[in-house]
Write a structure and sequence with these properties.
By secondary structure, this protein is an alpha+beta fold. It has one domain. 30% of the residues lie in helices and 23% in strands. Helix 2 packs antiparallel against helix 10 (303-310). The longest helix has 20 residues, at 69-88.
Length: 348
């Protein structure tokens, strides 16, 4: 479980509503950035043969995000404002009396942690993980088949001069959810028994550790033969659009309140966030906070992150799922500063 302090909500972008393929003027996905994560040694040892040494780290890929000049300037200005707020303290709980409880946790309904491996496919994994959690108790949706359909659509839209990210190197929630809403999903049993791909080649397993292997494009016709319309029973809506998140149109107080209300109502929230992985922050992907004695377990905005935001150096992005909140959770930053209030996150 990861935690995120409210401070970093300045960098959040929630699920967006448009299911048409339109570029987000403020945000462009432009490949991936290599990153490293620290492994839970107890979990790592379970998957290794007796007598072998479990690795302490794992290589992953984050999205490489290009912000417009307007978005970069807004982010820099927000970093300045956040520094001023820190002088007075930044409240996670509502300033006025609220009907919301001080904490609420949904968890993931017994869905196992998913693994995007060496690919920058975090949006696909976060969105499908949230769908899995609605069903509960199983890893149901095939990310591989969805991504291979994305590769086909990327090629088809390119013929029309339209950019459409396949999802292998990242995407936006609006595109991934829109694709699932239009084409449905292939379940994991079908993937493992029949495979996904085209007439020349099919894959039955996700290429976990091979960043160069993105399967083969799977046409919408081939996909339709194996898919099911899962979104007919699932409703989703926007809390904050990708473009509004990096503009004065964003009202983060309302966003925080709406996230909490969603959790209380039983709805998980999928979001995308910028991560500062510059310099020493690359070793923990910017998560320098300590919660209940566990270091590098939480994201909080530090002086280093504020400096990099003002210098327009933050380029990495990642998508995750908000599964709960706690107004009274206390996070200690690497500078010793206390932050009160946090969202609990599932990293795929």
């Amino acid at each position: 479980m990861k935690l995120q302090s409210v401070s970093s909500l300045l960098f959040l972008s929630m699920c967006v509503s448009s299911v048409t393929i339109a570029a987000a003027p403020n945000i462009k996905i432009a490949g991936t950035i290599p990153a490293t994560v620290q492994l839970n040694q107890n979990l790592a040892k379970r998957s290794l043969a007796a007598g072998t040494v479990s690795p302490s780290t794992k290589l992953i890929s984050l999205e490489k995000v290009e912000l417009s000049s307007e978005a970069q300037t807004y982010l820099a200005n927000q970093a300045d404002k956040l520094a001023q707020k820190d002088e007075k303290g930044f409240l996670f709980a509502a300033a006025a009396p609220s009907s919301l409880p001080p904490s609420a946790f949904l968890g993931m309904n017994n869905v196992p942690v998913l693994d995007q491996g060496a690919h920058g496919a975090c949006v696909t994994f976060a969105d499908t993980g949230a769908i899995d959690a609605i069903r509960g108790n199983t890893d149901y949706v095939s990310q591989l088949c969805n991504l291979e359909l994305g590769s086909y659509l990327e090629e088809e839209y390119a013929k029309k001069g339209v950019e459409y990210p396949s999802g292998w190197e990242g995407s936006l929630n609006e595109i991934v959810l829109g694709q699932i809403q239009k084409y449905g999903v292939v379940n994991m049993t079908v993937q493992r028994n029949q495979g996904c791909g085209n007439k020349e080649k099919v894959l039955k397993e996700y290429p976990l550790n091979d960043a160069a292997n993105t399967g083969v494009p799977m046409s919408d016709t081939d996909f339709a033969r194996k898919s099911e319309p899962i979104m007919k029973d699932i409703y989703w809506k926007v809390l904050l659009s990708a473009n509004d998140a990096f503009s004065s149109r964003a009202n983060m107080d309302n966003v925080v309140k709406n996230i909490k209300q969603s959790i209380v109502n039983g709805h998980r929230v999928v979001f995308g966030t910028l991560l500062d992985v510059n310099d020493e922050l690359k070793y923990n992907n910017g998560a320098t906070g300590t919660y209940r004695g566990t270091s590098n377990d939480s994201w909080v905005v530090t002086a280093k992150i504020q400096k990099d935001a003002k210098a327009k150096k933050i380029r990495a992005g990642h998508a995750m799922i908000i599964t709960g909140y706690d107004d009274n959770a206390e996070i200690t930053g690497s500078d010793g500063k206390k932050h009160t209030g946090a969202f609990t996150l599932r990293n795929s």
